[in-house]
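re: ur question from yesterday

yeah so i grabbed the chain u mentioned. its 875 aa long if i counted rite. heres the sequnce exactly as i have it in my notes:
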Amino acid sequence: MIGRHRSLGPQSDLEPTRPPVRPEVDPARRRAFTGFSFAVLTAGVLASVLASVVLPFHYRADLLFLGPLLAMGFLLAEQLTIDVDVKRVGWTISFTEIPLILALLTVPFEVALAANLLAGLGAQVGRRAATHVAYNAGVMCLEIAVPFAVAHAVNQALVTVAPIWFGPVVGTLTSSLISCGLALAALHVLGGAMRVAAGARLAVRTLAVGLLNTSVGLVSYEVALSTPWGWLLVALVAAAVIGLYRAYSDLMREQRDLEALSDVSLSVARYGQRSAQSPGETVEAEPEAGEWEPVAERIREQLNATRVVLRLRLDPSGEVSTLVAGETLPDAAWQAAPSALRDDPLLQLPGSHVRSFRTLEAPEEVRRALRQRGAYEALVVPLRGATQLLGAVEVHDRVSRWRGFGRADVRLLHTLASHLATAMDNRRLLARLRHDAYHDPLTGLLNRTGFREMAAEELRNGRTAVVLRVDLDVLTTVSEALGYTWGDRMVVAAGQRMGEELGDAPLARLEANSFAVLLLDRSESQAHEVAQQLRETIARPYPLDRIVVEAAGVAGYASSAPADGECENDIDTLLQRADVAVRAARNGEDGVRGYAPAMGQVFLRRFQLVTQFRQALDTGQVEVHYQPKVALPERRVVGAEALVRWSHPEYGRLDPDEFVPLVEATGLVDALTSFVMECALIKIRQWLDGGLRMSVAVNLSVRNLADETFPDRVGEALLRHDIPPELLTFELTESSVMADPERSLPVLRRLHAMGVVLAVDDFGTGYSSLAYLRQLPVDEVKIDKSFVLGMGTDLGDMAVVRSIVELGHSLDLAVVAEGVEDDAARDQLVRMGCDVAQGYLISRPLSEERFEAWLQARTKRDVGARSETVLTLLH
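ran it thru and got these structure tokens back, copy pasting raw so excuse formatting
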């Protein structure tokens, strides 16, 4: 048990507690230490024999009493130690000089040696720590033989000038120096030698503490002999000192426990910061099992255990990785290592409490598991995250106490496991949030943000890059004919095909049916070939269940080093040019185009759209369509969402994705929002005049939320049309709120205080949904349609929808599901308790006239509980 410089007996009073021998020590140094141990043992035996020959032995009857009492003193001094950790280096302060000087003053050498060996070796057996018995036995012999020889020699030389206790004092101090010197020598043999200056400081501190303990023992001896009832006074002082020691020891333990908790949490947090640092890493990126070694070693050191086994679910497949700190597991334990935690009788872990097992008390199957591990005692605790079992911690055989692990160890392990599980859960959540910030939720590919980050890094490093954009065509037709689920399946399949074709080249889904590829160190001719291959790849027919859907693709690319020699290192500019090239490719014959400066005419169209937008509002080109919302399960029409449409006289029907971003970017969104809100309020007023009480939802943008005067304009419009504020709903995305939360949150709070209903749109796709939902003054959440559309084919999407419904209701929020396209999805939402449904199953967005006709044809009028008119959807 080389866990300290030595075992029992008069040990150095200031000594390292970190084990010099660890499983990773070089085998050659192990062999060298074995030889050193036997040399120490031989020296100790020879010194003991010589001391026995030189020193006289006089038998006295009281030795039968003093010998066992002295052995108890050595044993008690070993147990009453103070462990101190300073800057991750541990020291043990002990009191073994006290029984040693008493032995030098009262008993012959042989009795002292027997008492020391009996106490020391007995303690090792009790600790099951006889690994280095040869070294420790040799040290014990030297620590008794040399002090007795020195004390005898000093008393003989100074018999007339020094008191009788002077020789024992000198001899006791030599014992401290011997144990310190042998420990430093052992460290040197094992390759962990201290510097000379550090060793000298250690010797001085050891000598100082040894002198203090020696003085205490000598004074106690003199008081007990020379003062009436002196032994009682010594006993009282000893009791007080022991009590003080216990209090100090408890404080030190609490401090070390807090340091251990901090170290474990910080270690796991550092792994979390490493995970998913790059946009290209997957959410499953986990630290290797070996990176957990400092955590396991810290737990082992804190609990003073022979071994700590961490079983962690680092693999997304659920496989368990095993990491051992301390003594190596026997081969039988590795062969029986479970692939799942439930396969081992020691790891049946209901709840989250610590379970304690001992060989003598455990059931047969548990005893067998302990024997396989080569352990006598084990503490086992599960690592439970918020939603799953993350692993388990096993702690085997405490080495520093006979009685094994105590209640304090159990409490500490429980707290450590709780902190570790929480840190692991937080790390996984952080990895998920980072992954979601850079990846598309449908395909798992990089999103626009992730692609921009990765490409910008490569451009900053001086790499030549070609940005290639590929669009999957006829997707809109498929979605309208078969539903968005089928269109999404085509997008996923197209992404998989291109990923297989590209290999390691970064691939991203920018939006809808548009993909981007980053080609590094490629010429434009090579980029053209890659673009042609990808276009042919995604144009192959798509088998969807029992039907085959035809598709087409177009591609455009832009290089950071164009032919005119002018380098372009701005990724946004390259993406913009690739977008222009794609639009040009749609009008070409081969479907692939590289960017040319002449293609800048596309920007002219966008400029025209921006400049003509306000006139379009005034001339009626822009109109509002309405998509109904139905309450579940009673199928009552409760309102509609207002959606803007632009019929351009030259360009025809424009997709909102084309002009709305331009309107927002140029500051015209206030006019658009005011126009849509005015139309919505007029429609609500018409319904109220006709006895219908239905709401209308209007979408807000980032600029609306940054406008401090917006709530005032809303209040004025509500008052002017005499509309109850609860009939107007504003839908907003988290990204719009978090773009400038200091400005947007006060605006939202004012709107909420007015009574206007606030809804979070596209909930579930943002990377901060759970983190910020409770901070927003909202009344309802709208589940993103991608999850609703995937419920029928993806159990994960169904679980997400159910979780959002439960989360919304737990926060007293109404839940609206977008993208309901079939009866099965509606029925599932009803069973989940979803409040409102919206989607093609009910109706597409309709113009005002067609919406009124839809209400007449598809609903029936009933009288509600408060005598109001209610529209119920016909079956």
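noticed a couple things. The radius of gyration is 40 Å. also DSSP finds 29 helices and 27 strands in the chain.
anyway ttyl
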